[in-house]
Design goal:
The complex is a heterodimer. Chain A is mostly helical. Chain A contains seven helices and no strands. Chain A is elongated, with a radius of gyration of 20 Å. The two termini of chain A are 32 Å apart. In chain B, α5 packs across α6. Classes of the chains: A mainly alpha, B alpha/beta. At the A-B interface, α1, α2 and α6 of A face α1 and α5 of B.
Chain lengths: 226, 315
Amino acid sequence: MELNQQAGIETSTARQSGMRSAGILFVACVVGWAVMELEILGVRIMVPVFGGAIYVVTGSIIGVFLLSLAVGYMIGGWLSGLGNPRRTLGTVILAAGVCFVVMASKHKTVCEAIFNLDWDVKWGSLLASLVLFGPPTALLGTVSPLVVHWLSEGSGRTGYWAGTAMAISTVASFAGCIVTAFYLVLYSLKTTLVATGLALVVLGALMLLIGIWVQRESVVRGSTNG
Amino acid sequence: MGNRLRCRVMGLALSVLAVLSLPVGAYVRDYGRMVVEKQSLYASIFVYERGSIRTLMFGQGMMTPVQSQVDLKAPRRHLLEYSELAFCGLFYQPQPKRLLVLGLGGGVIPREMRYYFPEMEIDVAEIDPEIPPIATKYMGFETDDKLKVHVEDGRVFIKKRLRHNPPQPKYDMVILDAFNGDYIPFHLMTREFLEEVKGVLADDGVVVANVFSSNRLFDAEFRTFVEVFGRAQAYFGEESTNVMLAAPGPAGPLLSMRDAMEKARAVRQDRKITFNLVEVAQRLAPKAEPEADAMVLTDDRAPVNWLREQESGTR
């Protein structure tokens, strides 16, 4: 009887932790999708101002995404030591969502202003890419190390979770690429950016709220114990 | 996170921008032996030679459209219908002093304009740096102090001119010819782009665009032209699916078939034009209007490839 109860508790904890892992991986997927959607939409943002020359598209845009992701990975690594991953993740995802929404109405103004500096379009498009895509991509880049840290917390299986999170989020990136390039091209750029931004804002806010709630719970429990 | 995968997927996505192009009716269909094969950043460039006839193509295969075809022994001969149709702008502005052409190809349009209007100043914007040397070496094209080629995206070229203060002299004629081939630049078809073109166009000037009539992209282009310029007229090719859209500036006329033929006769006589310009005037469809529900293309939404795959409702 007592043994049975013990087993029941163990299964429900296992199920809980499985659900938790799935939830975290879902967040990684949304972020993986959003990064590549933005990269593809980046072409539609830049080309009307800086032209369709090959260095604008393959140089400035792709280059800036990789650089910003590198910055994001670095920062994410630092942030992962701060504790309460829900609040950190919620904050960066919410901030990235705000970047998307702002970009939807301001990208033309930013690009035109930089174009009118009268630089060579190579450098102009590079600067514009940095200003527009740098912040949201770096913010989304912090998610990978944060997710890996959270998933492997206490399990000692960091390599396994790193591999799983990267694989799943990169598959989501692939889907984001294909769907954006094949189908979202039919819709307004602005609408697509706002919709994706709002989705990120909602997801981020939700994680932030859960993070705050979980922290308060543990504080309450901690105080009754003491 | 899969950098190489990301680059490769990006390349795949970009190639989605390149969809089947429609064949342009060429008079000489056996192109002969290949004399140039060059891979540029934008196209696979091929030049073929048969007797004195040279053919420029971007890519190989049955469905590949001919970009340009010239008879080196008879340079006044227009082998492709579209380069004759492009002269329809003269019905609206018979005395152009400044011409802008977007897209060089084999250079037939600027070369022939230069020949018939020796006092005219011509700017050509061509994005692909490999094209001008090939046009010069193989297609009988030549630059000089009045005919200049700028290796630059056409839209960037226009935006830079708009930036000049005081504004540089405006163009009396703008010919948009960057639409054919596998490279479909959506940013050269939108309302915002045409607004910029309008900014460099003289009030009595004319904009001519070489487009294709066989799909819904044409309806959208026609509609976008009317949206920006208030009115536009279409000249439908007979041997090809080429159409010239012509939009006069605010001070320019709108023509009936009879007006167009009269103008054609006068210009032909004045400039001793060797091909039958009156036949070009007869291609005018004065009643043609864009479909009411056709899409206005904008920088925000211009699904050019998707529209290209839909059948046209106009005509």
